[in-house]
Amino acid sequence: MKPICGSPALRLDDLAIATGRPHFSELLHIGRPNVGSEELLLERIRGMLRRRWFTNNGPLVLELEARLAHFLGVRHCILTSNATIALELAFRALELSGEVIVPSFTFVATVHALQWIGVKPVFCDIAPGSHNLDPEHAARLITPRTSAIVGVHLWGKACAHQRLAAIAAQHRLRLVYDASHAFACSTNGQLIGSLGDCEIFSFHATKFFNTFEGGAITTASTELAQKLRLLRNFGFAGIDQVVNLGINGKMSEICAAMGLTGLESLDEFIAANRRNYLIYRDRLAALPGLQLVRFDESERQNYQYVVIEIDEAATGLSRNDLLRILEAENVLARRYFYPGCHRMEPYRTLYPDAGRELPRTEALTERVLVLPTGLAVSSRDAELICEIIIAALRSPAECKHLLSR
Ligand code: T4K
Predict the structure, then answer these.
(1) How many other CB atoms sit within 10 Å of the CB of residue 358?
(2) 173: CB partners within 8 A, 6+ apart
(3) In a domain, 347, yes or no
(4) Is 155 in the pocket of ligand 1 (CB under 6 A)?
(5) Does residue 310 belong to any structural domain of this protein?
(6) 230 and 163 in one domain?
(7) 232 in helix, strand or coil?
(8) What predicted TM-score, i.e. pTM, was given to this entire model?
């Protein structure tokens, strides 16, 4: 790897798409999992092995549920095997039916979870100047068949929840938030987790706080929590006593061990993300046509997604060009959430005209690029990635020519 501090700026020739060698000898992923203390993790796993209690509401799952509820300041936290099943459990427990308004600009699991339980997703555009669902568009999409609105706190930035709560109350709709990106993020000084009827978190390996695979539902409603716990465990209310159509959505003890251990290093994970975010923000700030999604520093943030938007008209390079330039350097940036759920199957076939309602979503999916961060990305790595981007944007026509060869 080449030195960055004090070294001359990278030139076009230094780039791997020209005559240079890749600046990273190994692939740099965006979602390298964070791991807390290996020793503490192994200690917890050894305890689990000694107890011979591996799943089904074991002590580690119960401890993690209690700790997360306390941390988030919410009455109930129900851990699940992943966030996708958590979404399905929540939608089923709330008895959603007919149509549900949901953004297309999200990970496909948000929408699949609706379709999977036989509810029609109605795609809503993003708000101007935001990557989150537009409440005014959502209001216009409400019909007599609408049963809920599902917002997604994309990148950890809270939806316009006050407006959405007013719309949901006015039309007697359920309101659910997919908070998969928003663990440890606040809005109006309050950690996300208490909004709407319930909120869903993802603790997948690629999230800054992970349980290998895992998810959680948080809610203030004791009634909903009880129903969710039944649904998560096949509907068992006691031995041999099944009271509803449940499924297996349980988190295992080894996953909870990872979560308890990660929780002890949460500040360290966030500090690494924030350090990288600030490097990207400051180094890329002056580039015309490149905009970094900024986080409000007066709120708590996890900084786990470093998101840039590239305006080809201003930079001379498209997002896809930049993606290829970075890939040549072994930097695996990702174009989340291209091409938008409405252009993925089965929605593309079921709702071929959905795009007409989604002009801002369609434009954004062509511009967004997510850059690597997390503990596995050093400040030097982040600086080098910025140098590569700066060098490319300094010579867009030459880069386009090199890419076309
Ligand atoms: N709602 C929203 C808004 C979400 O973003 C997600 C998940 C969900 C719901 C559903 O949550 P879960 O049911 O998964 O709990 C990844 C994650 O798999 C997915 O969980 C996440 N969102 C999404 C944003 O990112 P992919 O398709 O990008 O995964 P993949 O395998 O390409 O991995 C991404 C990068 O991470 C790669 O460069 C490889 C690297 N990686 C991955 C894994 C699993 C590692 O370095 N180590 C690993 O162990 O979806």
Answers:
(1) 23
(2) 142, 146, 147, 148, 149, 167
(3) no
(4) no
(5) yes
(6) yes
(7) helix
(8) 0.97
- Would you say residue 327 lies in a domain? yes
Q: Are 122 and 203 found together in one domain?
A: yes
Count of the separate structural domains present in the chain = 2
Distance 337 CA to ligand 1 centre (A): 11
Whether 134 and 174 map to the same domain: the answer is yes
**Both tokens assigned to 347:** 């929605």
CATH number of the domain where residue 276 is located = 3.90.1150.10
Helix, coil or strand: residue 328: helix
Whether 204 lines ligand 1, by a CB cut-off of 6 Å, is yes
Q: How far apart are CA 344 and CA 378, in angstroms?
A: 35
> Helices 222-232 and 83-93, interaxial angle, to 10°?
120
Flag whether pLDDT at 52 surpasses 80.
yes
Of 202, 228, 263, the last residue of a domain is 263
Distance CA 92, CA 135 (A): 23
Q: Give the tens place of pLDDT for each residue, 289-336.
A: 999 999 999 999 999 999 999 999 999 999 999 999 999 999 999 999
Q: Which of 107, 200, 305 to mutate to test the pocket of ligand 1 (most atoms within 8 A of CB)?
A: 107
Domain extent, residue 153, equals 38-263
